[in-house]
Design brief:
The chain is of the alpha/beta class. The chain has helices spanning 66-71, 82-92, 109-118, 131-142, 180-186, 200-212, and strands at 10-16, 19-24, 29-32, 35-38, 50-52, 58-62, 99-103, 123-127, 150-153, 166-171, 187-197, 215-222, 228-229, 236-237, 247-253. The strands form 4 sheets. A 7-stranded mixed beta sheet has the order 9-8-7-10-11-15-12, with helices on both faces.
Length: 258
């Protein structure tokens, strides 16, 4: 059966790598500086179709992936970069039915990414002290259709998480070392932890806390991304690149020595 755009469905309107937008099929007009597009005309089209604006600007119509939806999130906080999210998820090895604890919901980008990995039967418990951040993240997650897999907790878990026997824990805070003890209590034996720290000083404190509180550190890495121009006859690296964003620390829970 041919997959077509349905009325009320979110779509990706793509012009180029820097200009792409999320819209809803059937709802009014979509405007750009190069003309407008009646969104009712999108209904019934096959993804990959080229449409024209009123000023003859070409746009591609796609069904958005999760990364496209995350790009459209409201961002009251600094968002984690895809390179860091993707690496952590790969190291987690998450699967359907897993339970994951997250502290530092922020805009919900990592929350949504985890939820997609553990769908349809897993659960993400995400903790965020700031009510306004939690509300924003809930609105963002609603765009993805993954909200049913996420429990939002607007409480401080410094003393303890409410969960036990979780498969993984994610710490994205300015002082992640404070969450190491609660994470150890919440994880199952051998459970995996990922910490994101922007500075070396934070990484050092996190590593010390992990070693002193029943974790084996597997690695701490920095990931860099360099884009390339792909124009025929002019293929070369872009002048700018995504350099340092965060150090990603991966550790596993082990038995404490008595």
């Amino acid at each position: 059966m041919t997959d077509t755009v349905k009325d009320g469905e979110l779509i990706l309107l793509y012009q180029d790598p820097r200009r792409h937008w999320i819209a809803r099929a059937g709802e009014g007009r979509f405007h750009t500086h190069r003309g407008y597009l009646d969104l009712k005309d999108i209904i019934g089209l096959t993804p990959g179709t080229i449409v024209k604006t009123s000023l003859n600007q070409s746009l591609f119509v796609f069904k958005p992936g999760l990364s496209d939806l995350v790009d459209s999130f409201d961002r009251p906080t600094q968002i984690l970069y895809p390179k860091d999210i993707g690496y952590a998820l790969y190291r987690f090895g998450l699967k359907n039915g897993d339970t994951v604890i997250e502290v530092g919901t922020g805009s919900g980008a990592l929350t949504a990414s985890i939820a997609q990995c553990i769908a349809p039967d897993g659960r993400v418990y995400t903790y965020e002290n700031r009510k306004e951040f939690s509300r924003s993240a809930q609105k963002n997650l609603a765009k993805t259709g993954l909200s049913r897999l996420v429990t939002f907790r607007n409480i401080d878990p410094t003393e303890s998480f409410l969960e036990r026997n979780a498969d993984a824990a994610v710490i994205d805070l300015g002082d992640p070392w404070k969450m190491v003890q609660p994470a150890w209590d919440a994880l199952k034996g051998g459970g995996i932890l990922a910490g994101f720290t922007p500075t070396v000083n934070q990484l050092e404190k996190l590593a010390e806390a992990l070693r002193n509180n029943g974790f084996l550190i597997f690695e701490a890495v920095e990931l860099l991304v360099r884009d390339f121009k792909t124009e025929a006859g002019k293929v070369r690296p872009e002048s700018r690149m995504i350099g340092h964003t965060a150090y990603v620390t991966i550790a596993r829970k082990i038995s404490r020595k008595e």
